[in-house]
Amino acid sequence: MPLAYTYKFLTAICEANQAKGEGLDVLSFYITAICEANQAKGEGLDVLSFYIKGSGNMVFAKKVEVCEVGPRDGFQNIKEWIPTETKLEVIDALVNAGFKKMQVTSFVHPKAIPQLSDSKEVAKYAVEKYPDVQFNALVPNLFGAKSAYESGIRELTYVISASERHNLENVKKTIQESFDELAKIREEYKDCIIKIDIGTVFGCPFSGAVSIEQVLYMIEKSLELGADEILLADTLGIANPKQMYDVISAVKKRFSGLDFGLHMHDTRGMALANILVALQEGVTKFDSAVGGLGGSPFAPGAAGNASSEDLVNMLHQMGIETDVN
């Protein structure tokens, strides 16, 4: 096909998508072919280069769901003990700010994370005082799920890392052992929403890169075992926008119609940039933490979460609604 016709073909696609208000995936493009150099070398389409210039309106959902994870992920890495009363005051303030979804604590062994040893008291307080707020808690195993359930929690965030090494460090189990435990939790607590938090999707502090195929396997296995929701976590905060696009595109291609969310850390200052890419790709569920707090004792080098204040400000400035004041 002559290069001139290729250019006309691509332009026609852009114009058709603009007319439908859809764009190419999210953006509408004018594509200017840089043909002369390639023609001179006789290489043609195989090495055709393009300048791509965004010309259409960016299309986003009208409303997104922001889950505040400060009371769990934000507090867990703080060594100095935070009085339970202070934690409850923070939860009160966050609810008053409009958050309708919140991760209030984690039911882990007190020796692993001493800061959250008051998980039962915190969870019971939140659930009883705010019945209209959807509270969830992170659980690493069946015992944690049992404690969360007894405290009134009916949405469990079960964490499994896509990296074998990190999963061993984080929950002392192989990936298969974690899936075996998930099957038991699903069988025992049929009336609970189970959200799978897949950690180290964008890289592991111990073993490096994690393949997209491994991430897809983790999603597939989780869904097979009855997961109600999937959350992809940038545990280290090292993702970049290109990587974010590649992962989301692969997930959408393999699991058409899957409604999944993101849990972003901001170690390299790219959390909001990555969230913007996700928004462009249709993702509408995001975790964030008040003040950008966060980190994990089992993820060396990880900084805080995406800041709730920054995320909500960005969304509101873009005309995207949240429930947050």
List the helices and strands and how they pair.
Elements (H helix, E strand, L loop, with lengths): L2 H18 L8 E6 L1 H6 L7 E6 L10 E4 L1 H5 L9 H13 L4 E6 L12 H11 L4 E6 L2 H9 L4 E7 L2 H8 L3 H14 L4 E7 L12 H13 L4 E6 L6 H14 L5 E5 L6 H10 L4 E4 L19 H10 L8
Parallel strand pairs: 3-4, 3-10, 4-5, 5-6, 6-7, 7-8, 8-9, 9-10
Antiparallel strand pairs: 1-2
Helix pairs in contact: 4-5, 10-11
Report on the structure:
It contains 12 helices and 10 strands. The protein has helices spanning 3-20, 36-41, 70-74, 84-96, 119-129, 142-150, 164-171, 175-188, 212-224, 241-254, 271-280, 308-317; strands at residues 29-34, 49-54, 65-68, 101-106, 134-139, 155-161, 193-199, 229-234, 260-264, 285-288. The chain has an 8-stranded parallel beta barrel with strand order 3-4-5-6-7-8-9-10, surrounded by 7 helices. It has a two-stranded antiparallel sheet with strand order 1-2. The chain is α/β, with parallel strands linked by helices and 325 residues long.
Shape: globular
Q: What structural class should be given to the helix and strand makeup? A: alpha/beta
Series of secondary-structure elements, N-terminal to C-terminal: HEHEEHHEHEHEHHEHEHEHEH
Largest beta sheet, briefly? Answer: 8 strands, parallel, barrel
Query: Could you give the count of β-strands?
Result: 10
Helix content: 40-55%
Q: Which strand order spans the largest sheet, edge to edge or round the barrel? A: 3-4-5-6-7-8-9-10
Average pLDDT figure: 87
**Which range does the strand content fall in?**
15-25%
Q: Uncertain segments of ≥5 residues (pLDDT<50)?
A: 1-7, 21-55
Output the number of helix runs: 12
N-end to C-end Cα span: 55 Å
